[in-house]
Design brief:
The chain is of the alpha+beta class. The protein contains 2 helices and 4 strands. A two-stranded antiparallel ribbon has the order 1-2. Strands 3-4 form a two-stranded antiparallel sheet.
Length: about 130
């Protein structure tokens, strides 16, 4: 079923997106352990469509996982092991509010694809019922 296969690739893509978001949230407070070290750098994910000959349609796949080039935040904490000579600690460039918003969007996309599968399944079942009569 073409519709189910297409929706399944969309679900798979959103699953990968959710994994990246979860990693970002889990590491939102991960700072370096040594002075001058970099903290966790926010990951990003991008997708592309490719034509699947067997399916006869485009499907969504991960294009690449990269890193956000936004600057790290700084906080003053001269007692921290990762503090520089001026007492500042570099903090991850992760904004948990943005990550939570992205998570809600990915969840909605995942659920939309799941709905396509459910509707397609119901259509097939109704068609089979009509053919039995």
């Amino acid at each position: 079923m073409k519709a189910i296969d297409i929706a399944a690739t969309g679900m798979s893509a959103q699953n990968e997106r959710l994994k990246i978001i979860a990693q970002n949230i889990a590491n939102a407070d991960s700072v370096a352990t040594t002075p001058g070290g970099d903290p966790y750098q926010r990951k990003t994910i991008s997708f592309k469509t490719i034509f699947d000959r067997a399916l006869g349609a485009d499907k969504v796949v991960v294009d690449r996982v990269g890193y956000d080039s936004a600057p790290f935040d700084k906080s003053y904490d001269p007692t921290h092991p990762a503090a520089d000579e001026e007492g500042y600690v570099l903090r991850p460039n992760v904004n948990t509010l943005i990550e939570m918003t992205d998570m809600r969007e990915a969840k909605a996309s995942y659920q939309a694809n799941l709905s396509v599968i459910e509707v397609t399944k119901n259509m097939v079942l109704r068609t089979l019922e009509l053919l039995r009569v």
